[in-house]
Amino acid sequence: MSLSDITTASIIAACDEYDELGKTRFLKKYGFGSSKKYHLLHNGKYYDSKAIVGAAHGYVGPGFVPLNAKNSSGGQGRAVQVLENLRFEVVENPPPTRNPDWSRDELILATEFYLRHAPSIPSKTSKPLTALADEIRATAVMQGLSGNDTFRNPNGVYMKLMELRKYDENYKGIGLGHERVRDVELEVFTLPERELLLAAYDIRNRIQAFRESGGQVPKVERPLPKSEVLRELLASDKPLENQLAEVLIDWQDTKRDFGRFPGLGREPSQIRKHGAVHVIEKRVRSRASGFDEVSASGKSYEQIVVDHFEQFPNEVVETAKKRLADFDLAMPTDNRDELEKKTKAILSRPEMLSEPPAGNPSPKKELALGTVYVRDPRVVAYTQQRANGVCELCQQKAPFRRPDGTGYLETHHILPLAEGGPDTVENCAAVCPNCHRALHSANDKEGLAEVLKKRLSDTV
């Protein structure tokens, strides 16, 4: 019995067993290691050439037994010769069948992104996640890493972010891949915040230098949305329609982050029936563009009108500009001075507070020298207006007045933002400085918080 006895049918039988057992179990059964250089390519799949030849010997017929690594003669070259004589295709150094484990630098970027966005991680089709995937792929290329056609694509990066949840003490689930804990992942996830931020900053500087020096990073297309109309808008040769698709996709992500159903209602069918320009103009004219629902996204039909003003009547363009100014005023911010200025301006515009603002159930975190939160100035303004100069805890008038004559009260989050509290009018109270200190530091602060909650429940 020799390798020359092996037939085409026995090779195919060995490949079938390989598929059934999987690579690891197959190699272990026959005592072979993974092929380093040459692989059999059969029906679009790669197989370890020497192991397949050894196993195929057992499928030749009665009396034939498999050959393992010890009793298989001729080495890798002989196995390749057998396969090629049978007219099978042998490939030298094929692309990886699996992607490599994540490096520390890749994990730093992923962890910084996770901590900035948790618990509302942007979707696979969102621009922030696509940009993160590009950064991580660049980092991998700089380290000489490569993989198959799914290498560090948005889907894979999103899955890694879901896996990181297993290290997050604030996450109540178990996270993907919870049974596999990697020391490097745990080490990166528990880095001091400042150290993590500086490390991410350094990596991004190196990525920029790599690209500026001519370094090439494989591009991966952003996953397409499920909606057929959105896919058509993205593929259109009209910039206005491309921008409309981006607006609607961002709106979906924002609604999803807010815990709302991310549907687009009748919008896709209306766009298909009447055209993008008609739908945008109608929404802006009627002040029903839907932006108020998703103001945190920063995207709007109004912006499309201003960017493509030549396609709309002048009065529609002027309406859009005015609304954009209002949207900018209502845009959440992480800057305290800007928040105060916006709050003051909104308080001077009663029409902007005719209804309680939605706020944000999961305010975005920004990692700086410390963690700061992006807050909605309308929530602050509405809370101050509701209190009308009277502390919502002690029920006393504000201890002094600001230069503009309004009573000085501070905005307090009952469930702190750092503990996952929402930036909403239901979770905010306007309190005097003394009560604010007590709510944070008094020995009976829990009891005071319950009193405040009860009083708010009677007014909100």
Roughly how much helix do the residues carry, as a percent range?
40-55%
Tell me the β content. 5-15%
So how many helices?
19
The order of strands across the largest sheet is 2-1-3
Query: Uncertain spans, ≥5 residues at pLDDT below 50?
Result: 292-297
Q: What is the SS-derived class? A: mainly alpha
Mean pLDDT: 84
Shape, per Cα inertia axes:
elongated
Tell me the domain tally. 4
Task: Please trace the helix and strand order, writing H or E for each element.
Answer: HHEEHHEHHHHHHHHHHHHEEHEEHH
Rg is: 30 Å
The major pleated sheet works out as: 3 strands, antiparallel
CA(first)-CA(last) distance? 87 Å
How many beta strands in the DSSP annotation?
A: 7
Domain HNH nuclease: 378-437
Keywords: Endonuclease, Hydrolase, Nuclease
GO molecular function: endonuclease activity; nucleic acid binding; zinc ion binding
Protein name: HNH endonuclease
Give an overview in words.
This protein is 48% helix and 6% strand. The chain has 460 residues and is mainly α. It folds into 4 domains: 8-92, no CATH class; 104-213, no CATH class; 228-348, no CATH class; 377-458, Orthogonal Bundle (DNA Binding (I), subunit A), CATH 1.10.30. Strands 2-1-3 form a 3-stranded antiparallel beta sheet. A hairpin with a 2-residue loop joins strand 1 (38-42) and strand 2 (45-48). Helix 3 (49-56) crosses helix 4, helix 5 runs antiparallel to helix 6 (127-142) and helix 12 (267-274) crosses helix 13 (276-285). The protein is elongated. Mean pLDDT is 84; it is low at 292-297. Keywords: Endonuclease, Hydrolase, Nuclease. Residues 378-437 form the HNH nuclease domain. It comes from Ruegeria meonggei.
